[in-house]
Amino acid sequence: MYQQLSKKNTKIAVIGLGYVGLPIALEFGRIFSVIGFDIKKERVISLNNKIDPDGEVPATAFEGSDVLFTNNVEDLNGCSFHIIAVPTPVDEHKVPDLSYLESATTIIAKILKKGDYVVYESTVFPGCTEEICLPILEKQSGLLLNQDFKIGYSPERINPGDTQYTLRNVIKIVSGSDEEALENIAQIYSAIVQPGVYRASSIKVAEAAKILENTQRDLNIALMNELSLILDKMQVNTYEVIEAAGTKWNFHKYYPGLVGGHCIGVDPYYLTYKSMELGYEPYVILSGRKVNDNMAFYIARRCMQQLIAAGKNLTDSKILVMGLTFKENVNDIRNSKVADLIHELKSFGLHVDVTDPKADNKETEKEYGFSLTTVNGTKYDAIILTVPHKEYIGLDERYFLSIAKEQCLFIDIKGVFRKKITQLNYWSL
Ligand SMILES: NC(=O)c1ccc[n+]([C@@H]2O[C@H](COP(=O)([O-])OP(=O)(O)OC[C@H]3O[C@@H](n4cnc5c(N)ncnc54)[C@H](O)[C@@H]3O)[C@@H](O)[C@H]2O)c1
C-alpha cells in the first residue's frame, strides 16, 4: 500500500475535515495524493480558499500539500486508504451518537474494493470499530475483512489551540485487523509522524487507550474541582495548595475549571455507556463527570452569594462574562460550560454581557440564543474571567477597575490574575 501511495498510483481519502481530519489530510498531502471529503459544502469552499473555518490551521500549511477538497462522493473513487475523522458526540441523554460514524462508514462501504484499508480516527468506545463499523463495511460492500480489505484504528491526539504538541511531533498509536494491516498502517502513518508510531496489540487496545487518556484527564480535573469546593469553605485558595503540593516529586498538577468541548467532557460517556452495556456501573468515572458538569452552576451560585454579601440587589446587577469558547485561544463554542453559567445567572434575573475575541456572534446566537457584546461604557457589579484568552491575559487591574462599579466582584475561574488583583473583590476556584 505504501509503495502504491508513494508512486501516487492510488490516493488517501480523509472523511471529515474538522479539527482532526484537516491536519491529517494536509500532512499526508505532503507525501501522497489526498482527497479531503466533507459533507459541509461551505467548509469545502473555504478549504479550497486555504481558509480553515476553525482558525487552527494557517494558510501556509496548505502550501505544498496535494489535497483535493470536495463534497462530491465520486471523487473518492480513486482512493484505497480511507481515514474516517467524523464527530462522535453524545445525545441529550449522554448516550453515544454514532450517526456520523455510521453514515461516513456507509459512504466508504459503497466504494470499497479489494485491497483497500479503512482506518478510524474518531474517538469511540472499545469495540466500536469492529462491532458497529465493520458490519456496515462488510454488508454494504459484500467484501470480507482481511480476505478482501483491512481495517485499523489510530486515535488522534490533536489538542486545539496548542502549537507545541502537534500531529507531526507526538507519537501516534496505530492498530490493525491483522499483522499485515498493522505493519502497513504503521508504515503509512510513520511517514508523517516524526517520533514514529506505537503499535497497539489490537484495535480494542487502541480504542481504549484514547478513552483512557481523556477519562484520566477528566477525573483528575474533577478531583481538583471537588478539592476547590472543599477549600472554598475554608477560604483557602486551591491554586496555592496545588502550587505547594506540586513541589513533591510524584504530584501531578491538574487545575480546577469548567470541562467543556467535545473531547474531555464527552469521551468518558463512551466508556461508561459500554461499561453499563456490559453490566458494570462505573461510579468513579460518573462521579467525576457529575462534579465537572456541576461546576458552572456552583460558580453561578457563589457569584450570587457574594453579590448579596456585598449588599447588591441581584436583579439590578450587571455581570460581564469574559470568554465563551470551551477553552482558551480557540474559536470553538460547542458544549461550552460557560453557556451553562450564563443561563444560570440569567435565570435569576441578572443582566449578563458576554465578550469573546475568538467566538463568532452568529454561531453564538444559533447555539445559545444570546449575543456577544463589546464593552462600551457599562459598569459592572461582577466581572467573570471564564476563559483566559491571550487577549485577556494582557489586561491589568486598571482596566478592570475602569469597567467596575463600587464593590465589584472579580471571579477568576482559572486563577490567572491571582495576586494581581488587589482592589476588586477577588475570588477564584
Ligand atoms: N478536536 C479534537 O481536539 C479531537 C482530538 C482527538 C480526537 N477527536 C475526535 O476526532 C473526531 C472528529 O473530531 P473533530 O473535532 O475533528 O470534529 P469536527 O466537528 O471539528 O469535524 C468533523 C467534520 O466531519 C464532517 N462530517 C460529519 N459527518 C460526515 C460524513 N458522513 N462524511 C463526511 N464528513 C462528515 C463535519 O462536517 C465536520 O466538518 C471525534 O470523534 C473527536 O472526538 C477530536
The gist of it:
With 429 residues, the protein is of the alpha/beta class. The chain has helices at 2-6, 21-28, 41-48, 99-111, 128-141, 179-190, 203-232, 238-245, 267-277, 283-309, 337-347, 361-368, 390-393, 397-402; strands spanning 11-15, 34-37, 67-70, 79-84, 117-120, 150-153, 172-176, 197-199, 318-322, 351-355, 380-385, 404-412, 425-428. It has 2 domains: 2-200, Rossmann fold; 221-428, Rossmann fold (3-Layer(aba) Sandwich).
Q: What does this 3D model show about the protein?
A:
The protein has 429 residues and is an alpha/beta fold. The chain folds into 2 domains: 2-200, NAD(P)-binding Rossmann-like Domain (Rossmann fold); 221-428, 3-Layer(aba) Sandwich (Rossmann fold). The protein is 38% helix and 15% strand. The protein has helices at 2-6, 21-28, 41-48, 99-111, 128-141, 179-190, 203-232, 238-245, 267-277, 283-309, 337-347, 361-368, 390-393, 397-402, and strands at 11-15, 34-37, 67-70, 79-84, 117-120, 150-153, 172-176, 197-199, 318-322, 351-355, 380-385, 404-412, 425-428. The protein has an 8-stranded mixed β-sheet, with helices on both faces. α3 (41-48) links the parallel β2 (34-37) and β3. The longest helix has 30 residues, at 203-232. The model has no long low-confidence stretch (mean pLDDT 96). It binds nicotinamide-adenine-dinucleotide (NAD). Nicotinamide-adenine-dinucleotide binds next to α4.
